Amino acid sequence: MRWRSPFRSEPPPPALLAGPCALGLQGGGAHGAFAWGVLDRLLEEEDFQPAAVSGASAGAVNAVALAWGLLQGGRAGARETLARIWSDIGKLSAFSPMGLPGADMQFDLMTRVLSPYQFNPLNLNPLRDILAGLVDFERLRQAAPLPLFIATTHVPSGDVRIFREHELTLEVLMASTCIPSMHQAVEMDGEPYWDGGFSANPPILPMVLDTDCRALLVVKLTPDQEDGAPVAAPDIFSRLRRILFNAPLQRELDALRDIGKAAAEGGRPPPKLARLRDLEVRTLAIGPEFFQKPKGSALDPKPQMLERLFQAGRAKAQTLIDSLAD
Q: Which of 17, 60, 182, 247 is the most exposed place for a label (fewest CB within 10 A)?
């Protein structure tokens, strides 16, 4: 979906494939494989110039994988790194009970009664091992190929804490992916942090204000729209979680529109505000079909499900590329 500024008589020329483009990658568990597909297809375009990446939760994992891959081997390296990390995540499903009948409901009930401090006292998280084996965080901090904005939620205040590329550690990424019903809070400098999706999913305004991007592409792991109102309790809670996780993004996009509108109405704006006024903003959203029961759970990353998500992301990116060529 593209936002066409209401205060311009004509939209600016497409900048997604013709200038510095910032990427905002939303979180959403295994559905992050959809963003993998989008990135994989965009990286095939030589004119695509990622200028900065922000992410929360699974979006943070994709952002770091993209940056590390670019540092290691350019576009081909980024595609290879993203494929490797999602392949490794898919292998985890072989050890997960979530695919068993009724397992998701049992897990939901368990997490309402027991905390991860009780059912996972050793705080085991296989994602940590995958990331530690894939990314050299010290080297990435020293030579990041593009700006990174990784969101976490500071538990005592509920505020967003955004970590930049020079601050990136394995603990930062684990904090950004820390779902509090599943994993213990991640301690950094004596402070506890949870999943960044609660407070910025993903952070948009800091990225577009601090970089010289001419376009913004947000990859959403929540559908733009879903049919009707759910009536079964599990479906109600599932829909409510998606609405709540999408709310921070909607607030930031609304604020970005307001800033652009104010810049347009204020006569001759300074260069930074003029850039925001002219910023091309597009979103690519996952389809609602992936939230129907037969399609699988965001907590159960089966390889078949990840492949469907990957192909759906590539197809959605192809549609965008085709629209830019028109």
A: 247
